[in-house]
Amino acid sequence: MSETEKAQMAQNRIARGRIKASLTRLESSFAELNTKNEISIRLFRLDNLFKEFEGLDSTLSLEESELEEFEKSYFNLNAKFKDKLDELKVLNLSRTTKIL
């Protein structure tokens, strides 16, 4: 492996670490989200993070792959966001019904 390839792999590991940090920030801010728009924006960001991570992870060896771990976190958080969106829809529907 050339020095250039080694340097590129090191940069990919660093970028992958930044994406994992972004995922952690999304997880940490979950409880603070209260509106449909906030959650939708985070879901969009989460999907983009997954695509970026998947691309970077594919450039590394199987031994270095962290895709399985990242997928678990991604799917867990994605489900939590969608469940919260559903809860908001139910709350809004019940408010609308009470007004009528």
How does this structure look, described?
The longest helix has 33 residues, at 67-99. The protein has helices spanning 3-28, 36-57, 67-99. The protein starts with a helix and ends with a helix. By secondary structure, it is mainly alpha-helical. The chain is elongated and about 70 Å long. Helix content is 81%, strand content 0%.
Number of helices: 3
Radius of gyration in whole Å, from Cα? 18 Å
| Largest β-sheet summary | none
| Mean pLDDT across every amino acid position | 91
Helix content: over 70%
Distance between the termini: 70 Å
Global shape: elongated
Give, in order, the helices and strands.
Answer: HHH
- Uncertain parts: none
Structural class label: mainly alpha
- Strand percent estimate: under 5%
Question: What's the β-strand tally?
Answer: 0
Quick description:
This protein has three helices and no strands. By secondary structure, it is mainly α.
Summarize the helices and strands and which ones pair or pack.
Elements: H1 3-28, H2 36-57, H3 67-99
Helix pairs in contact: 1-2, 1-3, 2-3
What are the main properties of this structure?
mainly alpha; 100 residues; elongated; 81% helix; 3 helices
